[in-house]
Specification:
Blueprint lengths: L2 H4 L11 H17 L3 H12 L4 H8 L5 H40 L18 H14 L4 E2 L5 E3 H4 L10 H5 L16 E3 L5 H9 L4 E10 L11 E11 L4 H16 L5 E8 L2 E10 L23 E3 L1 E6 L1 H6 L8 E8 H9 L4 H6 L2 H5 L6
Parallel strand pairs: 1-4
Antiparallel strand pairs: 2-3, 4-5, 5-10, 6-7, 7-8, 7-9, 9-10
Helix pairs in contact: 2-3, 2-5, 3-5, 4-5, 6-12
The structure holds 3,4-dihydroxyphenylalanine.
């Protein structure tokens, strides 16, 4: 053993002196006792038992001692560190218990509270009615077609035989869309009806064509009980060989009975639309008075205004000029078309009287319609 180290006195190594170790232990125990929560205990552990704590440093000094002195110093440091470790474990267990008890109180869930106070949303009845229409027609082999809400004037008007000077063009209360350069004439409008989808469909498919198109349409009306600037229509279009008005009437009857019940009675009243020839308006026999109010001032009917019939939409045989504009040979093919108001359908079907209820989105209104599909 080298002489320099044999004379080494371990008591002289300050970190290993018993009173210093004792002081380190006392400080550690005090800090541990003071730690009021797990975070504080964590930092006490780091300071007093971590790699750079006084006791860890003392432990490292042992290696520098001559072998004969190591055992006693090792025991002293080991005992000190053991006391600190034990105190840390005890305090850790205590603080965990405290935390668990606190969490149980703070995060408890009262399972007796009512769970159904907040109303869940409901699908809007306009959506479910459009889906019902789509179901009725897909069951007959129709497809559902779509078109853009921002529509080219050509599709909205010209293709449908509504020329620039046609009175129907100015009667339509159209929202015109400004061009990006600020000039008024962009050639784009918010579609005023779903009929442009007829033209789009004829141009993109070859007959036989059987489609319906539910969708939003726009007119410059103020919102009140009977008008809204955004509303919905269902367009129908059939193009095939040998299609007659009888097919149209049968289809409308089937649709009316599917929407309003098997007793529904319809009639076709002659009318005019530029894109159909001949044209008609399908009327429904009033569900409320069933015609009894007509000429009967003692029993007026609010639903039909004592007319006996309710207007439901427009229809007719597709005008050959429209067929030609859309690339279909009118000598070979004929077809019918119809357009119904979805809001109007809902008003009759569900006795919804005020258009504003339909646009306000109040769940108390929509929920009343349930989740019918
Ligand atoms: N597009 C018409 C409107 O909004 C309704 C209409 C009438 C649609 C006759 C048709 C039709 O398909 O054949 O007033």
């Amino acid at each position: 053993m080298p002489t320099e180290t044999s004379s080494f006195d371990p008591v002289e190594v300050a970190a290993l002196q018993p009173e210093n170790l004792q002081r380190n232990v006392d400080e550690a125990l005090a800090a541990i006792a003071e730690a009021g929560d797990l975070d504080a205990l964590k930092s006490a552990r780091l300071t007093h038992a971590g790699d750079r704590s006084a006791l860890a440093l003392a432990n490292r000094e042992i290696a520098a001692l001559p072998p004969a002195a190591r055992a006693a110093a090792g025991q002293r440091v080991g005992a000190s560190r053991g006391r600190v470790r034990e105190a840390l474990e005890r305090r850790q267990a205590e603080l965990e218990l405290e935390r668990d008890a606190r969490v149980l109180v703070e995060e408890s869930v009262d399972v007796t509270l009512p769970w159904d106070r907040r109303p869940i949303g409901a699908r809007h009845p306009l959506t479910t009615i459009q889906e019902l229409f789509a179901d009725v027609f897909t069951a007959m082999g129709y497809e559902v077609a779509e078109g853009p809400e921002l529509e080219a004037e050509w599709f909205n008007f010209d293709a449908l035989n509504i020329g620039v000077d046609h009175p129907a063009r100015s009667l339509m209360d159209t929202f015109f869309v400004q061009a990006a350069d600020g000039s008024a004439d962009s050639g784009i409008v918010l579609r005023t009806h779903t009929s442009p989808v007829q033209a789009r469909t004829m141009l993109s498919r070859t007959p036989p064509i059987y489609v319906v198109c539910p969708g939003k349409v726009f007119r410059t009306d103020e919102l009140d009980a009977t008008h809204t600037p955004v509303f919905h229509q269902l367009e129908g279009l059939v193009i095939d060989e040998g299609i007659t008005m009888a097919h149209l009437k049968g289809t409308l009857d089937h649709m009316a009975q599917a929407m309003f019940g098997p007793d529904t009675v319809t009639r076709l009243r002659p009318s005019y639309f530029p894109f159909t020839e001949p044209s008609a308006e399908p009327d429904l026999l009033c569900f409320v008075c069933r015609g009894d109010s007509v000429g009967n001032p003692d029993r007026p009917c609010r639903t039909c205004g004592s007319e006996g019939w309710i207007e439901w939409g427009g229809c007719g045989m597709v005008n050959p000029r429209v067929l030609r504009a859309c690339g279909i040979d009118p000598e070979r093919y004929s077809g019918f078309a119809f357009g119904m108001g979805i809001e109007r359908t809902m008003m009759f079907r569900n006795a919804a009287e005020d258009m504003r209820d339909m646009v306000e989105g109040d769940v108390r209104f929509t929920a009343a319609f349930g989740m019918e599909s």
